[in-house]
């Protein structure tokens, strides 16, 4: 698919976060969006993922046949993960897994047992999410995102709350699961995105 940005800008109150972005994203490439804290990289990622809308300019989504896709429907074609995403904490891990994959397709056939083994939360599937540590919640977010069938994947600061073992798990998961789909990573930590093909510095669009 292709994502085309034409004169895109985003403003909060009277302050422009970025302006006049003209870019195209196509093919099965990995993109990193970098910048200091508060620079707007997470906001830009949300625009690309269809979660937010620009203040000015247009974002066009085209499928492989060149058909224009409506922004309202595109979010169900993408998979997105961010550390600020709220998880329904009254649900158990298993209940959240069942709920999520009731609405979204899996990348391949696997069951609940395999899923919690892969995200290294085996034995915690029947625990309510509110009792998960911040690192466990982040593993769950990333697992639900990366094991969802999608046209593209969007990760905002993916190793937030992960310890060294968790970071190594993330890198291994990325290398195994994302190979033929576009991947967008918002980060200011090189270890999270150093495998990316293209780096976009959001400060270039201030």
Quick structural overview:
The protein has seven helices and nine strands. With 206 residues, it is an alpha/beta fold.
Structure in words:
The protein is built from seven helices and nine strands. It is 30% helix and 26% strand. The protein is an alpha/beta fold and 206 residues long. 34% of the residues are buried. Strands 6-7-8-3-9 form a five-stranded parallel β-sheet, with helices on both faces. A four-stranded antiparallel β-sheet has the order 2-1-4-5. The radius of gyration is 17 Å and the shape is globular. Helix 5 (134-146) packs parallel to helix 6. The two termini are 27 Å apart.
Whole-number count of domains: 1
Mean pLDDT: 93
How many helical elements? 7
Low-confidence stretches: none
User: Which secondary-structure class do the elements indicate?
Assistant: alpha/beta
The quaternary structure here is single chain
Would you identify the CATH architecture? 3-Layer(aba) Sandwich
Give the CATH superfamily: P-loop containing nucleotide triphosphate hydrolases
Estimate the global geometry from the Cα principal axes.
globular
Portion in strands = 25-35%
Can you summarize the main beta sheet? 5 strands, parallel
The separation of the N and C termini measures: 27 Å
Kindly identify the CATH topology: Rossmann fold
Order of helices and strands: EEEHEEHEHHHEHEHE
The spatial strand order of the largest sheet comes to: 6-7-8-3-9
Query: According to CATH, what is the class?
Result: Alpha Beta
User: Helical content, roughly?
Assistant: 25-40%
Number of strands: 9
């Amino acid at each position: 698919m292709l994502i085309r940005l034409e004169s895109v800008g985003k403003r909060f109150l009277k302050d422009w976060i970025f302006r006049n972005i003209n870019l195209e994203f196509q093919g099965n490439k990995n993109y990193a969006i970098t910048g200091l804290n508060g620079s707007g990289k997470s906001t830009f990622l949300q625009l690309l993922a269809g979660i937010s809308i620009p203040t000015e300019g247009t974002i066009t989504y085209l499928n492989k046949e060149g058909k224009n896709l409506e922004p309202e429907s595109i979010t169900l074609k993408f998979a997105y993960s961010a550390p600020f995403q709220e998880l329904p904490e009254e649900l158990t891990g298993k209940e959240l897994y069942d709920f999520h994959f009731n609405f979204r397709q899996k990348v391949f056939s696997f069951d609940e047992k395999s899923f919690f083994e892969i995200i290294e939360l085996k034995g915690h599937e029947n625990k309510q999410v509110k009792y998960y540590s911040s690192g466990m919640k982040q593993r769950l977010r990333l697992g639900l995102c990366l094991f969802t069938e999608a046209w593209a994947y969007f990760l905002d600061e993916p190793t937030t709350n992960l310890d060294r073992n968790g970071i190594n798990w993330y890198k291994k998961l990325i290398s195994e699961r994302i190979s033929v789909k576009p991947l967008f990573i918002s980060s200011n930590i090189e270890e999270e995105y150093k495998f990316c093909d293209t780096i976009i510095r959001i400060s270039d669009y201030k």
